[in-house]
């Protein structure tokens, strides 16, 4: 009889522990990290998009959805700042896409955004799976007083499974991911999307503020591709419709994604308007042999037919070498200074535009917590003075014109809180 009782007790204990194990698998795993923050690793879910299969095929439940579900990694810094969520203003959402050898460049972009911003940021980092661990390691190595000002989510690269390879290879690897942000970030109202080669020289808050300038029809904002039509690209070479006189550049794009998800867009394919998710693939199929700059060209086509839905912001919010390589031709930057630098064509990593490279190196090398004036501004001014043999170097004062004001928001490791 005792043997039967012992066997029964052992079975009950085994059942209890088995139940606890299964129960634990049903919930997210919380992994403690530095400063009391948490990195939340979520199990596979369907946010409207997911990772790409190597062979472009989807199976099982994935075939029932246009995208394949994958896991996201989130760090929530609210515990780290020792305050309740209600004390913090809603975060600004900043999104970037990274593939290939862009890790360091993307981290420098994030550093510039975190460095100068005033309100909290939430970063949406879309990256290839093999880069996720490197992002976590780098971001979690930043000082606690910096980490307390932002949170982040690492997303897998995800395209519609039936056309994943075609979308991924459009123009540059993964660049067209930005087109699908409204379909992936379904719970996010608005976002600032930037290319990885962007550097903020003013707070993200000021760019985010353009959302309040949208009228009832507008749902996105971008800067013109060029200010001077005589040397612009679209009006001279494009083989497809484009926005305005010179087109728009999508390296910095502000999106009201709630409006983008619900709006019907006029087009030259159907007599009726199409939703964003209905529009993208037919547009690519029609124009793929006529576009040069990939997803940026598709955006130009969309807003050519829907100009009332786009707000233009000045070129100082997307300042590229084209604005100075043939002489200064960005009036807003000449008046107010450069707010956002766009180092396209790889100019941060070669010697073709040393003024752009100098700004990139200054922010990259800056050590959090050190005096920003001597360690960043003064060092940058000295390096820029060596670039005056180039056209962009001759305009180098535009890069630092308002940087001193931005440095007033730089977080210090002395208990000082950024002003909100």
TrEMBL record:
Membrane topology annotation: Single-pass type II membrane protein
Chain positions covered by the region annotation Disordered: 39-89
Pfam families linked: Glyco_transf_8 (PF01501)
Any one annotated GO CC term: membrane
Organism: Oryzias latipes
Protein task: Glycosyltransferase which elongates the O-linked glucose attached to EGF-like repeats in the extracellular domain of Notch proteins by catalyzing the addition of xylose.
UniProt key word NADP: no
Keyword line: Glycoprotein, Glycosyltransferase, Membrane, Signal-anchor, Transferase, Transmembrane, Transmembrane helix
Subcellular localization(s) per the UniProt record: Membrane
PANTHER family named in the record: GLUCOSIDE XYLOSYLTRANSFERASE 1, IP22168P
Catalytic activity annotation: 3-O-(beta-D-glucosyl)-L-seryl-[EGF-like domain protein] + UDP-alpha-D-xylose = 3-O-[alpha-D-xylosyl-(1->3)-beta-D-glucosyl]-L-seryl-[EGF-like domain protein] + UDP + H(+)
Listed name of the protein: Glucoside xylosyltransferase 1
EC number(s) recorded for this UniProt protein: 2.4.2.42
UniProt GO MF annotations: UDP-D-xylose:beta-D-glucoside alpha-1,3-D-xylosyltransferase activity; UDP-xylosyltransferase activity
Highest taxon of source: Eukaryota
Family stated for the protein in its record: Belongs to the glycosyltransferase 8 family.
GO biological process: protein O-linked glycosylation via N-acetyl-galactosamine
Membrane-spanning parts: 7-28
Top EC class of this enzyme: transferase
């Amino acid at each position: 009889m005792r043997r039967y009782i012992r066997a029964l007790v052992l079975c009950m204990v085994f059942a209890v522990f088995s139940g606890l194990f299964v129960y634990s698998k049903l919930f997210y795993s919380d992994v403690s990290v530095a400063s009391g923050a948490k990195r939340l690793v979520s199990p596979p879910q369907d946010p409207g998009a997911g990772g790409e299969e190597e062979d472009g095929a989807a199976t099982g439940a994935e075939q029932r959805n246009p995208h394949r579900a994958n896991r996201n990694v989130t760090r929530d810094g609210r515990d780290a700042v020792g305050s309740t969520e209600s004390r913090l203003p809603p975060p600004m959402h900043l999104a970037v896409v990274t593939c290939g050898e862009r890790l360091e460049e993307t981290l420098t972009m994030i550093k510039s955004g975190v460095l100068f911003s005033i309100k909290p940021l939430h970063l949406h980092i879309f990256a290839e799976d093999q880069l996720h661990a490197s992002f976590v390691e780098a971001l979690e190595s930043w000082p606690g007083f910096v980490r307390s000002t932002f949170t982040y989510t690492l997303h897998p690269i995800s395209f519609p499974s039936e056309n994943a390879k075609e979308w991924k290879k459009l123009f540059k690897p993964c660049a067209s991911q930005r087109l699908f942000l409204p379909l992936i970030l379904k719970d996010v109202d608005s976002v600032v999307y930037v290319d990885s080669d962007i550097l903020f020289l003013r707070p993200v808050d000021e760019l985010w503020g353009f959302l309040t300038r949208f009228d009832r029809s507008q749902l996105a904002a971008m800067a013109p591709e060029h200010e001077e039509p005589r040397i612009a690209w679209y009006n001279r070479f494009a083989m497809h419709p484009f926005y305005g006189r010179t087109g728009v550049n999508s390296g910095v794009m502000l999106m009201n994604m709630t409006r983008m998800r619900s709006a019907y867009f006029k087009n030259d394919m159907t007599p009726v308007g199409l939703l964003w998710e209905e529009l993208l693939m037919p547009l690519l199929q029609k124009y793929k042999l006529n576009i040069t700059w990939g997803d940026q060209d598709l955006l130009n086509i969309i807003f050519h037919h829907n100009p009332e839905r786009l707000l233009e912001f000045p070129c100082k919010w997307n300042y590229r070498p084209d604005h100075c390589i043939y002489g200064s031709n960005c009036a807003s930057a000449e008046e107010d200074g450069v707010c956002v630098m766009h180092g396209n064509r790889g100019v941060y990593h070669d010697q073709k535009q040393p003024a752009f490279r100098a700004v990139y190196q200054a922010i990259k090398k800056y050590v959090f917590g050190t005096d920003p004036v001597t360690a960043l501004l003064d060092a940058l001014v000295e390096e820029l003075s060596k670039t005056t043999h180039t056209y962009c170097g001759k305009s180098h004062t535009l890069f630092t014109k308002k940087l001193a004001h931005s440095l007033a928001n730089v977080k210090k490791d002395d208990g000082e809180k950024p002003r909100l």
